[in-house]
Amino acid sequence: MTTPDKETMLNWYRQMVLIRRFEEKCAELYTTGDIGGFLHLYIGQEAIAVAAQSIFRADDNIITAYRDHGVALARGIPTKTVMAEMLGKATGVSKGKGGSMHLADIDRRFWGGWAIVGGHLPLAAGIALADQYSGADRITVAFMGDGSTNIGYFHEALNLAAVWKLPVIWVVENNQYGMGTAVTRASAVSDIVKKAEAYGMPCCQQVLDGADIFEIREQFEMAEAYVRDGEGSYMMEILTYRFRGHSMGDPERYRQQEEVEKKKTEADPIIRLGNYLLEKKLVTQEELDAQAQSAEEEVAEAIEFAKKSPFPAPEELYANVYV
Amino acid sequence: MSTSNQVITYRQAVSDALWEEMERDEKIFIMGEEVGVWGGTYAVTKGFIDQFGEKRVRDTPIAEMAIVGAAVGAAMNGLRPVAEIMTINFAFLALDALVNHAAKAHYMFGGQFKVPLVVRTTTGGGRQLGATHSHAPEPIFAHFPGLYVICPSTPYDAKGLLKAAIRDDNPVLFVEHSTLYQTRGAVPDSDYTVPIGVSDVKREGSDVTLVSYSKMVQISLEAADLLAKEGVSAEVVDLRCLRPLDMKPVIESLKKTNRVVVVEENWPRFGVGAEVAMQIMEQAFDWLDAPVKRVSQEDVPLPYSRDLEQSALPNPAKVVAAVKAIL
Ligand SMILES: Cc1ncc(C[n+]2csc(CCOP(=O)(O)OP(=O)(O)O)c2C)c(N)n1
Asked: CA–CA separation, B265 vs B137, rounded Å?
């Protein structure tokens, strides 16, 4: 694995802070009623999306579930069009029709945010099938939550992908709860990655630390080499934690506040990377602060853009029902 | 028997019905996503796990097909499961278990099996949840013989019908409306049931009949208020159950008003309006003074953006306009 240079690592730092600030603002905009519907925050999990973006090619395919802001932003979708979508504006990346849970950007081969648990997993298989079929050397990266590995969609998709050797990296973001249900209460095996064995699919040998962007990148790189070579699918499990509730208005009766606080201090990927860079004397605190500030400004501009943008015109209602 | 009433929410009514039935019969148990520790996504089963324990209040993995399929099996083998599908949007994942198994097990094996199962779920758009989470597809489920579909509009009906559903030996899809949970209404203190498959006149009138169910009853009643101000007297018939569908009060009302508007939250094509209008043709065509009209959701997947979504849903003004078009 090549050691990244300082600028690259500062950029990861900036991207993670961008996602964090973006979502903190979204939470505020939810309470003011500017954002409606469901809002699932990625706060605490940012290193995963940023690590993925730092490894995979711009023409590779990315797909995820409804907890999609982080993946969308890391993918390079303009912050302002993501924010405009959050506000249901015509300038949003899904033209205001999708909202928080349904972001997508075909130009960046970000195939969406999909809100039926597990539903996007067969889609990932099919997207990969299309590439395999036409001889493209692209790979598909499918993110999912721990809870989605218990639904039929998951098992059917992984089996199919294994039988057909489809070029997919299946990435479980194990944030330890599916809504309020702890992994051990919902999954017969708590090492989720072992499910790969049922399909004869290679997988990472240990569960990865979701707060450690270096560790995640290393696995992504290994997985990429395997899948890009046409060997078939590969599965990974990353242990992470969502610092916020499942969505807004989660009573959080299923976990102790101490557990959350502990994770916030011990497993914050932004703090981790910042400390690493400081300890290695690769950057100064001022340099980190400057990145954070520029990310904050980008979010502020995005909000301004989104607020000024028009809502979809009434006739948009019937647009795009059919091609 | 003299009974006193109390005014409670629709949520409380559903919750009380479940609670009282579980106290009455040990064979009744609940299973579904987040029904236990979380207390139900809509807080209907809050406190249940403390009272009844994990044996009878079972959190499940996210696995709709297994939830309904296992509930069918448990029902066939003597229990009375109340399975919860978090929202009707996810019931599509359980459609096969509902259609091929719950609805047919009794018939296909010559009456040997019974499936005394209730699947509770919530329906409805208007909350900016986007196209995957805003369906109101009750008519789809009402298509299948062997399955009952119940869609209560008031706390009284919700409680009485849920009790009736739990006590019935047939499989029932019990559809609560997510935007009705906070609404309030009078409910007797004593035990009661509302019979399955009996429509109910929610407001009497003489000029036009509004036929609806679930949330759309509320919309129809609001429309009736607006119409009254203009001197038009609307009768509101609440179907309460889509299957079995009781057309008698609709036909009786039509004979009085000679005009019908169906108000439905589902999409217009192949919906409740289509079925009701057809049955009117079959049973009371000569009594019509004008074509039957329907007010439904626009024929599009629901968008996220608030005003756009609202513009796609039925509302009292649209009902008033439909009535005026046939007066
Ligand atoms: C088929 C289906 N069932 C239920 C839901 C409701 N739901 C939304 S998210 C969620 C939990 C998913 O947990 P997990 O896969 O671990 O992802 P996380 O939310 O933790 O990112 C549930 C039950 C849904 N969207 N789709």
From this structure: 8
